[in-house]
Write a structure and sequence with these properties.
The structure holds two protein chains of two kinds. Chain A is mainly alpha-helical. Chain A contains 29 helices and two strands. In chain A, a hairpin with a 6-residue loop joins strand 1 and strand 2 (195-196). Chain B has 15 helices and 13 strands. Classes of the chains: A mainly alpha, B alpha/beta.
């Protein structure tokens, strides 16, 4: 009863928090931005949230949450446009929708497929929100019992799941998560202030890399560069056609399938690491199994749309369970979400047990916002489907410079340092390579986000346990092996064993063809080389600061062992093994990687010389004129609009632009400073 | 109790008198600068989430109203290396480049590395011109069962307890409580790696830490509810400084004994000698002169006068006591000579105190400041 007496007032407080015009306004704004991001193939919630990050500083918590939840919730709805109309997955969560959605569009039933998808998405989203409400109610008393050893144990559980489940080759996932954690340890240690992989001669590294930079570099940049290289002519979009009502009737006729797939979505969402990329396939498989006449699948069976779409919205609710309860992100977008909440409201809110204890109203506000965003998103998708569908026809070469402008600006806001852009470029390159060789990027990002809490929990648990052991042996054992820790330990061991067996069947980012041995091997050696340097660097930390040495040495040790196993496997296995996955062999890119990257390197170098705004003007004009091949006047107009937009944004937020060498010698008026 | 209240009234009276005399002096001084149409940048060397941000965000709009020409005052955050990065940057700024449109807000965390001779410090407080100094206080608290072990103000009953304390690092403001507890003979083991004092409070709430301290505003917000619930009991405040530099009861917590009182009542704790002098020196650097506003090196007399007058006008607002009590606590907001005095006491510790603390840090925590 006490459970309900605490929850009910919190639930109504939460409703009061969000049912304000300004909050709803931000929610709609978030939904609209999420729609745009989701519609463009390849860009998903992670890129969108990363772009929002710099603007979260000091924002009112509820407004910031409305913006972010609006975006997260609507991406699995809006990515359906690309899947159905163009046959390209709008994001990793709707790969399965393509199988039957696109054939329906070819038959002129695009509208029917879309409306069935939207109805399923809405239903799935609401099921997810409902599940989350109930789960928080039940789990809250247990979570409030969590102390440092329990928190450490659940972090280890999350990390092991993410590492194993995030890709086809389990050890690759572990190595990716380890690399992410090692990147997360760069800078001053929390316990004793020793430097890891940094020197005081480069003050930028002392503070470590920021989440904005890593999120944008690992996710947004590789996708944008890949799309830009393909430079797809998007003329083959299918017309919408009619049949909106028919789609909704289809959904209602299959409501039990939708219920079952929503539950699948929630359950899969709860498991850290599985996340969005597999849930649609599982739901699709379920839809096929439970249909008597299987012959129509693949050529336009509406159940093949309803299944995946019900599940991929429901998984957002499930994914919030580990995120909100323990601060363990189950997916890449949740990793960014956690980082963003830390920035909201002057840092008083921290996701995890403390939020459940002190900010239950905020916790429930997140749930309400999720449900509401699903409704608003679906309504907008249906009402504005004609216009949104047209968005997919914008050639990517026109969009990319604009996106790069925003990304560079967002990255610079994290540290107000030109080095932000250099770091973005460097991490972006790493992201491009990880994408190419099918190293799990979500595992990397989650490792990065959890690196700091894992180290802190581990160090503190050890220190407190030592002190308890000094008092008496029993008290120490009681502290470390509480019932919750033992249960978590058992769950972790079982999950790791099962996960290792099943990992082969998981294709997180779709299957990737294997290429030659040489390129994947070189990348592995580079990663191994960095890990070895980091290991040595950590080993050099003197004894009095041992607390800053143990964690990086342990993590890099594990990752090095993983890399060595991979190395041996690479020597034995044939070239066709998934180990040698290489996207370069399957993607028909019209432009080379280096020539595409050169554009952005040029932007970076010019910024260092003449400052951001001048460099941007040259970059935008040059890109539109020469790469996109537009007329001089079009390029000039585009450049003017871009510069005006970024100046307006910087002016509103009262932010500066990166300055270059020129500004050292000449005083220029804002925005050229 | 009665005595301390009187002392406080006298102290406040002195403060007010000093402020008034400085105010008239400032008005009679230079001509001041006009900032119409300009934007004043207030650089804070911390992130948007800390106490310094709250402090600057409180003052910024008030300062904008009070400065001649009502310039826009924007707070800019330049976090890094525990504020050393921002302070090093400010050291390189020249007054001529900004003409009064650049001010800097420092904090106790900026002062301590400076005092301890941290090799990363390339800034020099004496080059800057102080225009405001804000004080704060701190309160240590215990769980109720341990609080009962105290015999009135005598803390010696706590000596057989193993204390655990969530600490941000021995070279930060945590130096003050750690040294105080050691002086009382308590066996406090700091668990390092806490990112903010809020995390320390959470450890206390989870029962993993059994002693903690918070600065005044965080205590009011985070610990007062625990005290009302009965899960925490205040142990002592660090106290406040009166006009003569004596430690007196904190005006925000007049009912709480100060560390000095507890120390006097506890056998083996001395309120004189090198240990006490070191504690007091670092307490003064960390709390009563915690946050200061500076103009860059080479600032003109006119600019100093203008900013001093503006902060005095803010303090003179009829509603100032009311709006500041909730957000800053009841602490002196010093300008003019008083601020200069606070700067002096906050950035100078006797060599003996510094040597004591550096060797104590080395012996006790293995921290070497090369």
């Amino acid at each position: 009863m006490e459970v309900i007496s605490v929850a009910l007032p919190a639930l109504s407080d939460a409703a009061g928090l969000i049912l304000q015009p300004v909050v709803l306004g931000y929610l709609v704004l978030g939904v609209v931005m999420g729609l745009c991001i989701g519609v463009f193939p390849g860009l998903g919630g992670i890129a969108g949230l990363s772009l929002l990050l710099p603007f979260m500083f000091g924002m009112d918590p509820v407004l910031g949450l409305a913006l972010m939840i609006g975006m997260v919730a609507v991406v699995p709805t809006s990515d359906t446009f690309a899947s159905v109309l163009m046959g390209i997955p709008g994001s990793s969560a709707s790969q399965a929708t393509v199988l039957d959605g696109f054939p329906m569009a070819k038959k002129g039933e695009a509208a029917r497929a879309l409306s069935a998808a939207f109805a399923s998405s809405l239903f799935g989203g609401l099921v997810g929100a409902m599940f989350l409400t109930v789960f928080i109610l039940i789990a809250r008393p247990i979570v409030l019992e969590f102390r440092t050893p329990e928190l450490l144990m659940i972090t280890i559980f999350g990390l092991s799941m993410v590492g194993i489940l995030a890709g086809r080759v389990a050890i690759k996932g572990i190595a990716a998560a380890g690399l992410g954690m090692m990147i997360g340890t760069i800078g001053e240690g929390d316990s004793a202030g020793e430097l890891r992989m940094a020197t005081y001669d480069m003050p930028y590294l002392v503070d470590g890399l920021k989440l904005v930079i890593v999120g944008l570099g690992i996710f947004a940049i590789p996708e944008i560069v890949a799309l830009l290289r393909k430079d797809r002519a998007i003329s083959d979009r299918k017309p919408l056609g009619g049949g909106w009502a028919a789609g909704v009737r289809d959904w209602f006729a299959n409501i039990w399938l939708s219920v079952r797939c929503s539950i699948i979505g929630v359950v899969v969402g709860v498991i850290p690491g599985l996340g969005g990329s597999v849930v649609d396939w599982i739901a699709y498989g379920h839809a096929v199994q439970t249909t008597r006449d299987k012959s129509k699948f693949g050529s336009g069976e509406v159940r093949g749309v309803i299944g995946p779409e019900s599940s991929n919205n429901a998984k957002e609710g499930g994914g919030l369970v580990p995120t909100l309860l323990f601060g363990i992100p189950g997916s890449g977008s949740m990793a960014i979400f956690i980082g963003a909440i830390a920035l909201l409201g002057s840092g008083n809110i921290e996701v995890g047990p403390s939020m459940l204890k002190n900010n239950l109203d905020i916790t429930y506000a997140i749930v309400w916002l999720l449900a509401l965003a699903n409704v608003v998103g679906t309504l907008i998708c249906i009402a504005a489907s004609g216009g949104i569908a047209r968005l997919t026809t914008i050639p990517f070469s026109l969009l990319a410079p604009f996106l790069f402008m925003i990304i560079a600006f967002a990255a610079f806001q994290s540290g107000q340092d030109i080095m932000d852009l250099v770091a973005l470029f460097g991490i972006g390159l790493l992201g491009i390579m990880m994408r190419r060789f099918d190293w799990s990027r979500p595992a990397f990002l989650i490792g990065f986000v959890l690196s700091n809490p894992a180290e802190t929990y581990a160090n503190q648990a050890v220190q407190i346990a030592q002190s308890r052991f000094r008092k008496s042996f029993e008290e120490g054992i009681d502290y470390i092996f509480s019932p919750i820790v033992i249960v978590l330990l058992i769950i972790t061991v079982i999950s790791v064993v099962v996960g290792l067996r099943q990992a082969k069947t998981i294709m997180a980012e779709g299957s990737v063809a294997s290429g030659s041995k040489r390129a994947p091997l070189i990348f592995l050696l580079v990663v191994l080389g960095y890990l070895l340097v980091a290991f040595t660097n950590a080993s050099l930390i003197p004894d009095y600061a041992a607390a800053d040495r143990v964690f990086p040495r342990f993590v890099s040790g594990v990752a090095i062992v993983g890399c060595l196993i991979l190395l041996v496997q690479m020597m034995i296995r044939p070239e066709t093994h998934p180990l040698f996955a290489d996207r370069e062999t399957e993607e028909d890119s019209r432009h080379g990687l280096w020539s595409t990257l050169a554009w952005f390197a040029a932007l970076l170098i010019m910024t260092a010389l003449v400052g951001f705004v001048l460099a941007l003007a040259v970059f935008l004009f040059g890109f539109i004129r020469f790469r996109a091949g537009r007329s001089l006047s079009f390029a000039a107009a585009y450049t003017a609009a871009g510069i005006a937009f970024i100046c307006l944004m910087a002016g509103l937020l009262n932010r500066d632009f990166p300055a270059g060498l020129l500004q050292e010698f000449v005083d220029l008026p804002w925005p050229l400073t | 109790m009665e005595i301390s209240k009187t002392t406080r009234r006298v102290a406040l009276g002195l403060v007010a008198a000093a402020a008034a005399s400085v105010a008239t002096g400032a008005a009679a001084g230079g001509h001041g600068i006009d900032l119409s149409g300009k934007t004043v940048e207030w650089v804070i060397p911390f992130s948007e989430t800390g106490g310094s941000a709250k402090w600057a965000n409180f003052y910024a709009p008030l300062l904008s109203e009070a400065l001649p020409g009502n310039p826009t005052v924007v707070v800019k955050f330049m976090p890094g290396a525990g504020s050393t990065k921002g302070a090093n940057w400010f050291q390189e700024q020249k007054y001529e480049d900004s003409e009064g449109t650049l001010i800097f807000g420092s904090s106790g965390s900026t002062q301590f590395p400076y005092l301890l001779g941290d090799p990363r410090v390339r800034y020099e407080y004496n080059d800057w011109e102080v225009v405001l100094a804000s004080g704060t206080g701190g309160v240590a608290y215990l769980p109720p069962d341990l609080s009962e072990k105290m015999d009135g103000m005598d803390a010696s009953g706590l000596r057989d307890t193993d204390f655990i304390y969530g600490s941000q690092g021995a070279t930060r403001l945590d130096l003050v409580p750690l040294l105080a507890w050691e002086m009382l003979g308590l066996n406090v083991e700091p668990v390092f790696g806490i990112k903010g004092r809020g995390d320390g409070r959470l450890m206390f709430e989870r029962g993993e830490a059994n002693i903690d301290y918070q600065t005044s505003s965080s205590y009011l917000k985070g610990v007062t509810p625990l005290v009302e619930e009965g899960t925490a009991v205040p142990m002592m405040s660090w106290g406040a400084l009166d006009a003569d530099g004596n430690i007196v009861r904190d005006p925000t917590f007049p009912d709480m004994p100060t560390f000095k009182e507890i120390c006097e009542a506890t056998d083996g704790c001395e309120t004189s000698g090198e240990q006490w002098d070191a504690w007091k020196a670092f307490f003064i650097a960390g709390f009563p002169a915690q946050k200061m506003v500076f103009l860059p090196a080479g600032a003109s007399e006119d600019a100093k006068v203008t900013y001093t007058a503006a902060f005095e006008a803010v303090k003179a607002r009829a509603d100032f006591a009311e709006i500041s009590a909730g957000r800053l606590g009841k602490y002196p907001q010093m300008t003019g000579e008083e601020a200069a005095g606070a700067l002096k006491s906050g950035t100078n510790v006797p060599d003996a105190a510094r040597d004591f603390v550096t060797s104590w840090l080395q012996d006790r925590y293995g921290v070497s400041l090369k």
